[in-house]
Design a protein that fits this description.
Helix 3 runs antiparallel to helix 4. This protein has helices at 2-16, 21-24, 29-41, 47-57, 122-136, 231-242, 255-261; strands spanning 67-73, 80-83, 92-96, 102-106, 114-120, 147-157, 170-178, 184-191, 205-209, 217-225, 272-281, 286-289, 295-304. The protein is of the alpha+beta class. It is built from seven helices and 13 strands.
Length: 307
């Protein structure tokens, strides 16, 4: 599986990244935000330019504003500016003062002095990213009559708690199955209410729309994005890996194929793997535990009536 991931990652990079030193040196989201924090602190920031850089780094439309700021900490001393680190387990944050000097702030507690945190509007980025993934999948004709769906009545997961320097977790799921044309399709679903770990939510959300699928089985992979996801790369990786799978006349689980399509580095950075569910069925219901033991869902069949 590691070899397959590495091969897919190499093919993806070759397809979407130009060759040469300049391409290899392209800054990532963390680096762009860190530079912006310095420039805000020293009053030299070009916000519009940085917005375009962030959009490109995340594989999103360049006309979207994705940068957010929030003031945290106490009231003692000079205000500093820092980029919220992508690593949830970071031991320190690099902050800048008005003269551009660096200050290392520990992450075990909020600072006593005011700190302006520069970050990504991840909720907005996830919603835009879901559109990028949808557009990468083949368009399919939907049945317009009433149909069955799977409704999530309760859901609970762990490992999504964000530290003080990050906002709420932004969860999305990739629902995969065989479309009406026999080709694999992926339907991304946002789950913005899933903010806290070890908390039971009752969203009554429709997660699988069975009128899109040939078989009465589908899989779900739940991911977390807290800033550094490139949705264009994710969409292209999914398309490259999944659209070559041939329908053999019977359903086959697709969780492993979805996970294999995601480069290894994204398991230590973003998006973070949260949980997966194999073979949800059209008429299935009740509590279904995730494959990794980090979450569960309670589901039920739901009839969507024709208007």
């Amino acid at each position: 599986m590691r070899t397959l991931r590495a091969t897919l990652a190499a093919l993806l990079v070759a397809a979407v990244v130009p060759t040469g030193t300049a391409a290899a040196a392209s800054p990532n989201v963390d680096q762009i935000l860190d530079r912006l924090a310095h420039d805000i602190a020293t009053n030299t920031a070009d916000r519009a330019k940085v917005e375009r850089q962030i959009a490109r780094a995340k594989g999103l439309p360049e006309n979207e504003k994705l940068i957010t700021t929030k003031l945290v900490g106490g009231t003692k001393g000079e205000r500093l500016v820092a980029a919220a680190p992508d690593d949830d387990k970071a031991q320190s944050i690099t902050a800048y003062d008005r003269n551009g000097r660096k200050h290392a702030l520990p992450t075990n507690k909020e600072p006593d002095q005011p700190l302006l945190l520069v970050d990504i509007d991840v909720e907005k980025a996830v919603n835009l990213g879901m559109d990028v993934i949808r557009k990468a999948m083949p368009a399919q004709q939907k049945i317009q009559a009433g149909y069955w769906a799977t409704q999530v009545t309760k859901v609970r997961v762990s490992d999504v708690q964000e530290p003080w320097f990050k906002g709420d977790a932004e969860i999305f799921s990739l629902v995969s199955g065989f479309g009406l044309d026999g080709k694999v399709r992926v339907d991304p679903v946002t789950m913005p209410y899933l903010d806290e770990e070890n908390t039971t939510y009752s969203p009554n959300q429709l997660i699988v729309h069975w009128n899109n699928y040939k078989y009465d089985l589908a899989d779900v992979v739940m991911m977390e994005d807290d800033g550094d996801t490139n949705y264009k790369a994710l969409a292209q990786a999914l398309a490259a890996a999944l659209l070559t799978i041939v329908d053999g006349g019977a359903y086959i689980p697709l969780v492993s194929a979805v996970l294999d399509a995601i480069p290894d580095s994204w398991y230590t950075d973003d998006p973070d793997y949260v949980e997966s569910w194999y073979t949800l069925s059209e008429q299935g219901g009740g509590v279904v535990n995730g494959a990794s033991g980090r979450g569960w869902m309670e589901t039920r069949p739901y009839w969507v009536r024709e208007l």
